[in-house]
Amino acid sequence: MFRERRGVSDLEDNLATLTGQQQDDDNMSDDDNAAPEMQSEAELEGEKEDPFLMAIDDLEGRVVAALDDVKIHPGVRSNSSQTVQAELATVLQPVMEVAAHTAPSVARTYYRGVGAEGVEASCEEVYQRVISDLVLPVLLEMAQSDTIPAKRGASLEFFRGLWRECHKSGSWLDSNQGSNGGPYGSGIISKVHHNTQQPRAQLKRRQQKRLAREAELLRYWVQASIACTTPGVFTSDSAEAAIGARGVIAASASIRPSLKHIAQRIRDADDRGANRVFGPVMKMVEGVLKKLFLNTNLSKDVGAEDDALRSACIKFLEIVCLCCSAKPQDSSSRKRRDSPDDFSLEDLPAGHPVITREALESIAEYAFSTLRGLALLGGQRKVDSNLLSEMLMGGNNSPSEQVVSILKPASLAFLEVESTIPPGDAENALEFNLDRANMEFDFLLSQKSYTLTINALATLSSNRPVFFKEGATCLGRRNADPPKFVEDGPLTKSAILAIQSQLRASCLTLLRNALSVQTKSSQILLKTLIKSDMKVQAEKAEKMAQQTMSLKTAGRAARNRANMFYEWETSADQRSSKRQRETDDALAKMRAAKAARGLGQGIQLPTSMADSIDLIMANLQHLPSKKPARSSKKQSSKQKAPATMDSLIDAIITNGASLTQEEGRWYSRDGGEAWESHMDNDTYYELSEKLLSTITAEDGPDKKRSKQELESIHNQKALFDTQCKVAASEAMGRIIANSTSSRYPELTKFANQVAAKLAWTLKDVPISSNLRPAQQMANDTIQSSKKRLASKEKQESLDELASSFPLVASCLVMEATITPESEAQEDRPSLGRSILDEAYANSCYEKPVKGKDPWRNYDTSLDLFVGSFLHSGERTNDKPTDNDRKRTAAHLSGSIQQQIGAMPQVKKSTFELLSAMCDTEDIAKKAADADRKGSQQTIAATASLHASKQAAEKRAVTVLLTIRDSAFQRDDVQTRRSAVEAAVCIASGSMNASKSCEDKALKLVMNVLFPKSTTLADLVVEAAVAELKKASDLAVETYDSIQEENAKNAAKENYGGPKGAFAPSSEAERLAMDKLRKPVFLFMALCIRRPEIIKKLFQISAVPKADTLSKTVRQNMAKLARAVATKHGAATLAMQVSDETSQDEIPLLLTFLEHLTPVGEKNMPSQELIDACFEIQEKKSKDGKKDPRFLIPIVCSMKRDELVKKLPEFVQADDDVFVAALMKMGERLSRHQLLFRDEPESDDDALQLKGLTLCEQLVYLHTMDFKAAGVPQKRYLDALRLCLENEEVFNDGLIMSSLDHMSGKFLTSEEKLPLAYMRTVILVCSKHESLHSWICHTLLPRLVEGKIYTEKRLWEGWMRCAKMLESNAGSGVSSVEAINQLPQEQLEIYRARYPPTRLN
């Protein structure tokens, strides 16, 4: 149905937006309603002539075009002036207009048949083809399967808007009963049409059609909401929460109309139709409740996306309670006019076997109890999983029972707590203490969700009397025991103050309600408000509620008095109203006086012709009677020519130009005295002999002429030469003027060719007056281009061209000074192109001269020509409201691709200037500032800025397309290299460009240029290497300053160090890493395609003092390693990279190996990778000493027996290596860290234990024979100390588990106690006070039982430990009991060494 854009797909996205190409098959039709092939020509001709079918086809085409635009939309906003949702809504607006209004209008305009039956049949056909078969399925498919959250949200909002629009007059669901109502008439119901009775059969038929369409739209709407609330829609938690929130909002909007439709179906005795809607509605409610109570993706902490989802679910619970409960039945409520979309339990008819009031009432009851629990406890208390599973698995599979099975456990979790609180009627109703700190919660409420919960309770209590007492009691209790600030809690201090204020306001509002007196809940509300220091307000509110309650049973006179009182109380202050009117009158008079004087909004001209004439006559009276004299005699002396009739006529005809013309020029005014006319058969003119003799006279020293004569001849010749140049310049100006104003392309092209030859011939000739704007543009363009060109020689060449060939420079930028008024003017031949062609021809035939580049003029002209494109865009950005500049820049940017493609030769400087057009940051910043500071007075300016921003981005895309074409189509290798280098420079960030341009350039390099050919791929790699070397040079240059900044940060008292292994340590280092990240990303993307260049990445990154680059590479190594491992194999790549790595590159190699291992507890490294790491360690050994760091990436998957053998190698390594190895060993055994696993009886390798748990690490470290392994005792003990000092990992429970395992083995005589065992116990006593009790009452007696005193060194340690804990008897934890269990001999030994302490 939809057209698809095709592009080169790889890496992240395709380059569809960049290439702008769409490859459609000409043989395939995208028309779903195309005629069958077997139709006859007559039938086809009849269909073509049928206006009704043509109108439907037009509607479908418009809908398909708009839906295509939505399908290809990237899902991100194209400008900052509106959100992406508003942008998608704008794209979908044509679909909305066609579906809701244009389609029924077409149906009743082009209907076929006779009378009402024909209109109905046409309406049905249009609705079926446009709405049922096209709009609704496609929008539902978008809501169910689109991978972009914004589009799913737009489809949900579309259903809501379509429901609203379809209920308007003349649309599909118009409920007007007249003969002109619904889609069958204009929708305008006059008295005549309203009173016109339809035939009963027609009315019933139309009502059934309307009900069927309503049901279809509701089903699609509900199904779309279900799709967005289904778990697992997106892998990203934030995207899942965002689209879930929009799905819940859509469910909140659709539940009321769905229930009203179900009620109508039951009234019509259509139980099957009611079930078809009720089932999806209950499934939708079930999905929302699962999002709130059973969503495992939502964290307990409050995040922005999770908070939005929970808030939407709480609002949905409120709507469910309102729809499934009864309205108040008092007289005041009966007089109130209800909303047409409102629904309550009374609106549901009885008689349906499944959809009963009792079922909905039970949903409302449990939902309200859940809301009370959220408000009183501050979150959802943990639901009993056993009860929840029983509820979900049990039941009778009724739709409403499934909803109850979710709500009931959540409400019971609160009711269990409420049962421990005194009832609301008791005197001590507010005397309770809930220990929320010891409660387990599924989630806690934030400020927003808490506010919505309180509002929900207040609303339900006010509008549903059945909930008033419980709701008032709940809010009163929460106000008496408000939320308190907790350091790591979800609520800030300001949020708690706001919630407390809202609680007091809600309690006061409920107390003012008459139901508080009627339900006897006013006492608890009064008490809680008095407790909050609001006694005066509470007593007034209670009095008002009592008065309102008494008026319900009072007489008419009392009610009238109350009505008068309230009318007088709410009336406006007469004095203040009068003062306001006087102020308004004074302001109006002041504005009128300003307008009369011509102030304010400019000069105000009279409105009538008579007043205008009077104004003119009054001004004529002030004109001077005489013409003012000239300011000086010097000016009047210059005017030698007499004023005659001829001169007056010439002045009129030439529009005043003749008055400024100099008659001394020999070539003007028909030549004057310089020309002679011959009146023969053919009249012709020639220069006079006098003039010729003067200009040809020789003034050399050999001629016998006086000094005055020689000076006169010299001056005349100089004047003649000057006038010749002026004549040539003016002739050039006339040629260019004719060229730019001609309507005929052939004439323009010929004039351009002549002008090009003359421009290069007339060196040092000044320009004429009509070329002054072009000369100024040329000078500005040169200044702008010089900022972008890196070569100083290029900059000097531009200045030289402007001074030596001013005509050439002006002609090159001529197009940038002309605003095209029509398409014909846009397509005219380019004068600048003709200048370049002439320069190229001259360079080709110019004889080579030593020290002079024959292509200098062509290259410089090309730079100036391309610079005019750049400067034109800059001028537009400087003045976004200038429409002439906009049209000129648009015309030039549209021709860049064609002009550069037709150039015979392109240089590197050309791409440098073109790439500068990708820098759109300035105009983007201006647009963002306008949005932030925008007001009603600057709407036009803001719109112009955004239009300029879009135009700048379009120009940038055109530049990228031009670079692509040059790389593809040019034969010259140097030109292709320059084009590729330009694209790589933009992608790597070395050229100033916007973020979007950099992303598009990256896609251009990776998805278009690199896969095109091997030659281009080599050029891309070569350019990327050059950019990486630039990055390395930058890192070396900034090394000293970054180190100094890092040292300053480290010296600060509150400095906590970097937040990660490769995180920047200072702001200077962060900025440097940001600059280096782009070339690193680009090179890593190339490494995925060509793994052999990883060697180059390591070599450049390991340059001395390039630490910042090395850190940047290692920070992003995970993406590279995992991508190449997936594509080329981890083991093979590890060996290949290690073979090419030098000693200086070992840190990079280690990081690479670390990230080659798969992620996740179940994804273990392969045996091939393990063997490869061992082989790498063997190859990289130095002097027979192996580096254990090469094994760290795969220790988690090594067999436990092998790891135990390798443990001494890690112990002898540095502290960082040792700790990293321990962490990696237990990385994938997080669930078993406290256990010492038993070896399996089977010899199957798959069942062998892998890795070491933390408990096993401590055990094997203690049992290691360090002497046999060659480990120094000091290093061995330091290793144990490192473990014990890391209290976050080796915590109390882990240490106790390890010591318990070793002591248990000792007790059963299976193993001896390690020598370092008691030393560890003594260290634990000094660091872990919580283990004192276990050591005293369990461990020490167990060691006595195992006869530890038989081992001398262990016995010494036991006695020292017992002595440390013996003196704590006062705290209840003492080793006295264990000491008394010693045999008599050992007890005497102990007492001899440590006598008992005497107490004073």
Automatic annotation (TrEMBL):
Q: Which keywords are on file for this protein?
A: mRNA processing, Nucleus
One GO cellular-component annotation of the UniProt record comes to: mRNA cleavage and polyadenylation specificity factor complex
Here the segments flagged for biased composition (Acidic residues) are 23-48
Indicate yes or no for the key word Nucleus: yes
List localization entries.
Nucleus
Question: What GO terms describe the biological role, i.e. biological process, of this protein?
Answer: mRNA processing
Positions the record marks as coiled coil are: none
Biased composition regions of type Basic residues, renumbered to the chain: 624-637
Sequence ranges assigned to domain Symplekin C-terminal in this UniProt record:
1187-1389
Pfam families xref list: SYMPK_PTA1_N, Symplekin_C
Region entry Disordered: which residue ranges?
1-48, 328-349, 624-643
Write the protein's name. Symplekin C-terminal domain-containing protein
The Symplekin/Pta1 N-terminal domain, residue ranges = 273-371
